[in-house]
Amino acid sequence: SLNCFIGTIKQQPSYEEKRTMKNNRFGRGQALIVIALAAVALVGMVGLVVDGGRAFLDRRKAQNAADAAALSSAYARIKGNQDMVSAALGSAAENGYNNDGKTNVVELYSPPKDGAHTGDVEYIQIIITSNLNTYFARVIGRQKITTIVEATARTKQAEIKEILNGNAVVS
């Protein structure tokens, strides 16, 4: 005789599977905590990339502005008919640092207040402090990034001197 069976045969779960399923009800909600922590970590990494990149860009721009302001101020001092402070502030403003006291501060020191040429009146020091608001780094508690750059330029009155045994004159 031929017996016919219609349906599915379920295999009984093993002891390990039973144990895993039984313990699983105690672990409900763990995935939510792990996902929340991973999301905070992911936003923190995005903040490091985006806000860190913006900070490097701002530092480069501030350094370029400080270099230009130092040279502009030195040129104004040598020419004698211009105010070296106005020249420095004008040059920094043209490069995006307007000395508003909130987002950036531009300082001029002659003689320099620190560095290799401290106290030497031939040198002009420009210090730019830039405060950059963050976007993503706020999640990890970083509201703003402060960048401080400096540039120094030397000014010296022209003096005529002979070089090459009197065959040339340099100023």
Would you kindly provide a written description of the structure presented here, covering whatever features stand out?
- This protein is of the alpha+beta class.
- The chain is 42% helix and 20% strand.
- It is built from three helices and five strands; from the N terminus they run H-H-H-E-E-E-E-E.
- It has a three-stranded antiparallel sheet with strand order 1-2-3, covered by helices on one side. A two-stranded antiparallel sheet has the order 4-5.
- The longest helix is centred in the first third of the chain and has 50 residues, at 30-79.
- The mean pLDDT is 84.
Topology:
Layout: H1 15-24, H2 30-79, H3 84-94, E1 104-109, E2 123-133, E3 144-154, E4 161-163, E5 168-170
Antiparallel strand pairs: 1-2, 2-3, 4-5
Helix pairs in contact: 2-3
Q: Give the N-terminus to C-terminus distance in angstroms.
A: 122 Å
Secondary structural class? alpha+beta
**Overall helicity:** 40-55%
Note the main sheet: 3 strands, antiparallel
Features:
171 residues; alpha+beta; three-stranded antiparallel sheet; two-stranded antiparallel sheet
Task: Put the structure in a nutshell.
Helices cover 42% and strands 20% of the residues.
